Amino acid sequence: MATQESKPKIGESEKITINLGLIDLGQIDLLVQEGFYSNRTDLIRTAIRNQLGTHAEVVRQTVARRSLVLGMQHYSRADLEAIQAAGQRLQIQVLGLASIGSDVSVELALATIESIFVLGALHASTVVKTALAGRIH
After folding, report:
1. Which stretches are transmembrane (predicted)?
2. Given this model, what pLDDT does residue 4 score?
3. Cα–Cα distances in angstroms (integers) from residue 56 to residues 52, 53, 137, in the given order
4. How many domains does the chain have?
5. At what angle do helices 40-54 and 22-33 cross, to 10 degrees?
6. Residues 3, 25: Cα–Cα separation, whole Å
7. Which residues contact 5 (CB under 8 A, 6 or more apart)?
8. 44 lies in which domain range?
9. In this predicted structure, what is the pLDDT of residue 10?
10. Low-confidence stretches of the chain (pLDDT beneath 70)
11. Exposed end of the chain (fewer CB within 10 Å): N or C?
12. Does residue 80 contact residue 108 with C-beta atoms inside 8 Å?
């Protein structure tokens, strides 16, 4: 019986922590209280999106220059087995989310993944991440 692996969804998010000065935080709370934003997170997400929009062309050019995959890139056990059978090795370069299947063994990952560069998040089992630690940049 085949099982379907749970893959991360594009809409998933990562939690970050930021430190703000009390005056900045107070101004955010004032804008929330006045109804401009539904909560602090809404304001912060909007501000980040606005800044990313301002710099969108630089991001686009850099993604192209560095040959980064933009978005989500998932590597299943079958993908890595095919790469291994072809005698190839991966240089994973992702801006967004890179994920390695939970059924990928440490041995398979070490045999097929030469390097990992992720701007965003890398989802993989703890043992695979630990084994590849020296190849993650």
Report:
1. none
2. 40
3. 6, 5, 24
4. 2
5. 110
6. 47
7. 76, 101, 102, 103
8. 22-54
9. 53
10. 1-11
11. N
12. yes
